[in-house]
Amino acid sequence: MHFSVESFPHFVSEDICLQFNRVWQRLAEPGYWWTAQQRKLIVEAMRAAKPRPVYDRQREAVSNLSHEESSQEYLSPLLLDTIERVSTESGQLDGEWCKSVCERVGEGAYVELVALIILVLPIDRFCMALGRDLQPLPEPQNGEPLRAYPEDIVANGAWVRQTKSAVANKELVNVSRALSICPIENGLRRDLVDAMYMEGHSFFDKLWHRKSLSRTQLEIAATRTSVINRCFYCANGHTMILDMAAKASGDAVDLKSPQGQEVNDIGVEHGELILDYTEFANREPEKAYEQHAKLIEVLGERAAMELAAVVAIFNGLNRTSDPTGVPMEETLMAYGRLGNKTESLGLAEMTGINNTERPSLLQSIWILVKFQIRRIMGEGQ
């Protein structure tokens, strides 16, 4: 067992440790397109990736980067550049870049590379936040990757294809389908989100009662993290979820606050502490533990863990939606159209808005009416 509750200096749930151990077990195995040794190299490169300063963000075109035959000892310049971009600049990616990478690396290999990053990065961030050393990567097992796609893959509006079974599952939001051509990794990612945030079937529930923090408090952290990472899919979606949750709970949340704008009153209990922690943990993750004692003092150990987990897992979610180009759910896009919220809050300035068709006001009203009918009839999202 790699992760146990005793291996953390503060309270961590058994379920989180269980999911972390499942990820680590899978890391040691050959994947769909990469050997276990190559998978380890990909994760090591992710751990080594650091954000470039603003003055040094000019990137080489994909066509100018060499990509030799796969090796067990090193990764090509193209792969290293791709890992760095996904790890540190996911909000700046576009469909043409993704297409170019997939043409040279392979669609399945690219999706698996993204999957490895978004599985390990949130676990690393969570360990940093709770003062635990990063877990050493497991010893790679021998064996060859499967090198085969699922039989039922289809285009579904994203930059990479998905499986028909994932598309047909109406309980899934689009980001939960994003990596489905690597079914094991996609399943692990969904289970990690369930443990660190909330079960998928509760996504559109406006109130949660199984957490120490309220849904409004957690959505402030989710939204602010997504705004910092410039992820339109998550920033827009969770701004709208935050608004719905606040109205249901009676919290007078100022939606400008998680966008990084100064407000007189955030409108939720401990909102300033939650925002301050979220800002710090995202900007300087290696130092996030410096704030944990304050969280425990004010919120309690379980709530402090929940907040750290949400910030960590949204760093994975942001790097899932942007590198795969999944479109925003029409329901949340429609909700953002009402009152011009998406535009007035500055969310429309994010690159990822180009991945989604924007409904008119009349279309938005009809979309929301249909959504309410589906929810009443128990027909999923």
Structure summary:
The protein is 52% helix and 1% strand. The chain is mainly α. Strand 1 and strand 2 form a beta hairpin.
Question: Your description of this structure?
Answer:
This protein has 381 residues and is mainly alpha-helical. 52% of the residues lie in helices and 1% in strands. The protein has helices at residues 14-27, 36-48, 77-88, 95-105, 107-129, 164-168, 183-196, 215-228, 232-249, 271-283, 292-299, 301-324, 330-337, 341-344, 361-377; strands at 153-154, 162-163. Strands 1-2 form a two-stranded antiparallel sheet. Strand 1 (153-154) and strand 2 (162-163) form a beta hairpin.
Q: Order of strands in the sheet with the most strands? A: 1-2
Overall pLDDT level: 93
Stretches where pLDDT is under 50 for at least 5 consecutive residues are none
Termini, distance in Å?
A: 37 Å
Helix content: 40-55%
What layout of secondary structure does this protein have?
Layout: H1 14-27, H2 36-48, H3 77-88, H4 95-105, H5 107-129, E1 153-154, E2 162-163, H6 164-168, H7 183-196, H8 215-228, H9 232-249, H10 271-283, H11 292-299, H12 301-324, H13 330-337, H14 341-344, H15 361-377
Antiparallel strand pairs: 1-2
Helix pairs in contact: 1-7, 2-5, 4-5, 5-7, 5-12, 8-9, 8-10, 8-12, 9-13, 10-12, 11-12, 13-15
Q: What attributes does this structure have?
A:
1% strand; mainly alpha; two-stranded antiparallel sheet; 381 residues; 15 helices
